[in-house]
Specification:
The chain is of the alpha/beta class and 205 residues long. The chain has seven helices and seven strands, in the order H-H-E-H-E-H-E-E-H-E-H-H-E-E.
């Protein structure tokens, strides 16, 4: 197990170094996303763990939270890295399908989904599910790459002989959808990341 954790962490560091060689600082960009969501408190969910980059930032910030992914391989990678850093008691890893999760409605006060949207074939179905999960005064944070970020990811994936698949719902599409659903949306961005913070509009008394 220890060897597996070390080998996994080595792959994590190599991936981070590759990104940084192209000018993309994984930790800096994830810190930026977390800062846009502040204050962050209560019951926290991350939808789409991936390699666990954002999960690690959340854990380092002292948060305890639930994180899910549909891929057992990705979840395993993220979990081993969290164990390496000693944060495993803070993180509840789950295997879930974002289109229909097992969580009760209103289960979470803060829901994050970071660099997941462009992978989704049924993006609006997933957004609806995430909206179902937030509490009445909760908030949803959707983050994805800017145009510069996508160019960078295309270069990195091309270097590895792969295509960076992007589906047809953009963050701007998601913003329009959330506004139509009655959410107040705040949009911020860095060079590589765009962040939407959506909260339910409070009805006047």
């Amino acid at each position: 197990m220890d060897n597996e954790i070390l080998e996994n962490h080595k792959k994590y560091l190599e991936r981070k170094a590759l990104y940084k060689s192209f000018g993309y600082d994984v930790d800096k960009e994830r810190d930026f996303i977390l800062k846009q969501a502040e204050p962050v408190s209560g019951r926290i969910l991350e939808a789409g763990t991936g390699k666990g980059h954002f999960a690690l930032v959340l854990a380092k910030a002292g948060h305890s939270f639930v994180t899910f992914d549909i891929s057992q391989d990705e979840q395993r990678f993220a979990k081993l890295n969290i164990i390496h850093f000693g944060f495993d008691k803070q993180v509840d890893f789950r295997i879930e399908n974002g289109e229909k999760t097992s969580f009760a409605s209103g289960s979470f006060d803060v829901v994050f989904s970071v660099n997941v949207l462009h992978h989704l074939r049924n993006a609006y179905r997933v957004i609806e599910e995430l909206l179902r999960l937030i509490s009445p005064k909760g908030k949803l944070i959707l983050a994805d790459f800017t145009a510069e970020g996508f160019k960078l990811m295309d270069k990195i994936h091309g270097l590895e002989g792969q295509a960076h698949e992007v589906c047809n719902v953009s963050l701007s599409d998601a913003e329009d959808y959330l506004i139509k659903k009655g959410f107040a949306v705040k949009k911020t961005q860095s060079i590589y990341q765009c962040v939407l913070l959506a909260e339910k509009r409070q009805q006047p008394l």
